[in-house]
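Page 47, continued from p. 46.
Same chain as before, 613 aa.
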Amino acid sequence: MKKQKKRRGNSIKKKLMIPMTVMVIVQAMIFIFSIFAVDTIQQLRYNAYTHLDQIASSRKDTLENLMVHNWSRIENFRGILSESDRIYARYAAQKEAGEEAEVDLTEALAQNLMEFMRSASATGAFVIFNDKVDGTGNNPALYLRDLDPTNVASGTSDILVEYGPADLVKNLCLTMDYCWQPYLSLDPSNKQYQFYYQPFHAGKQYPQAAASDLGYWCPPFRINPDDVDVITYTIPLRDADNQVYGVAGVEITLDYLRSLLPYREIVDSQKSAYFLGIQMQGGSTMQNTIVCGPLFQRLSNDGTVSFGDSVYKALHYFQEEDGTSSAIGARSTLKLYNTNTPFEKQQWVLFAVMDDADLLASARQLENSLVIAFAVAVLVGIIGAALVSSYYSAPIKSLVSCLKKSRPDEPVSLPKVHITEIDQLASSVEKFSADVAESASRLSQVILATDMPLGAMEYDIESGTVFCSGRALEVLDFPEELWLRRSFPQQEFGVLIDQVQGRMKLYQEMTTGNRKEMKERIVRLTTQKGEIEWINIKELARGSCILVVIQDVSEEIREKMKMEYERDYDMLTRLLNRRSFKKQVIERLERKKPGVGAMVMWDLDNLKYINDT
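Result:
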């Protein structure tokens, strides 16, 4: 008979490599085929991006033209500036002559403000003087508003007065708004008044600069809590000596501004919007955002919008608050300030935003067909890999299950799975387990040989088992018949340790330096025989295990207590010595406020003679 050859275990690498390689090759071939369509998809995306960018650029040009050439054009302010200078010159002359001076707001100034609003198609215009009204602390101001500048009514019936003298309003037959005030109260600490203080301080800081270079576009605000939201453009008012005495400005309500941003021109659906806001140079967040379109509610809850990296030229991703989907916006920066001016870093940015699903619909349709083809290939690979892995991993799972059921205090015995590498690993685990058990046994024998009252316990949270070594159970005064046991189920050990803890009392908490994961304390234990022992317990948590080292320190504690007694008491009289008495008196006085008390002193004659003999 031929001698039967010994069966060799097959390598798991060999068993899995062939089918997995075939699956990878199939997936690679399908993926390579899909690459040919990438250029077409990318071109479709670029076309969609370019179209959105053109919409944003066109709307930006329209808005920039209004803001620069209508609302902030310095020539439109000439009449207002001239009349304001005349009013302030009369006021300054009266003040210099020592007369009772007051800023007298004129009908001519009101006419100039109304002409400015109508010629510039603005919703409001105003002049605010810096000098306070006597006795009030408020600022003289004339603030007019036309909520619908597109419709020009005859006369002044469409003009509302927000701030201004009552007699001037009456003479011009103007209508007071519901929140009208004769004067304007400004608070430098309130950010809503930066529309006034920003150009005012810029005028003082740059006295030689032109007024047009000191103009300031203020983000949305309300001039009072009950008013409408507005943006403003303000310039400083300066006298012949370039001293700033106030500001003049134009107001645009947000409702009117939104009418200039028709979001439906982007796409005729509820998935588009215009965002107009302020972006600091180099930042990726828009603040004080003015929005037109329902898409904004999906992208922001607090008025602040953050955009991601550029996807194409000036196009950026916007992520929704819950991260479910995103939108794409084309960014166009409005050039509202000249270079080398105080506010040039404040960039007003317009975004035309669309839901990316609508913007890239054509590209997505083509892409989806390729994704389906790729998904089919991947699915085939996954199913094949799952079948192969299930077939060959069954014996490995059996090995792992056997290893988990093994007890740490017993030798590990693992079954053979007839796979070379796994069988070699199992043999190594068995040998390592035997070595560890032998090493632990040696350590326990060494501890016992030294007759040190020392032991250790380890609680494995995952297995719910407590392992004991050394004289841990003896030190904790467990029943003597349990001293040789090396492991306990957590439930059984919990009952035993609760009985011991009922006889424990904390004696001292110990510091462990920088090792915050370690806890150390000394407890006072009353043994079952009624004796007092002191136990040092060190507890260290590491991952899923808790290690506890236990040591009987009774001798050290008794010696320490004896030394403390000899230090604090007089050996002849057994009374507190002077140092200890003084210390206790100080501690009691510090702990409780002194009340009525008494002290009795005895003078014993010849005590020194008795003490010396």
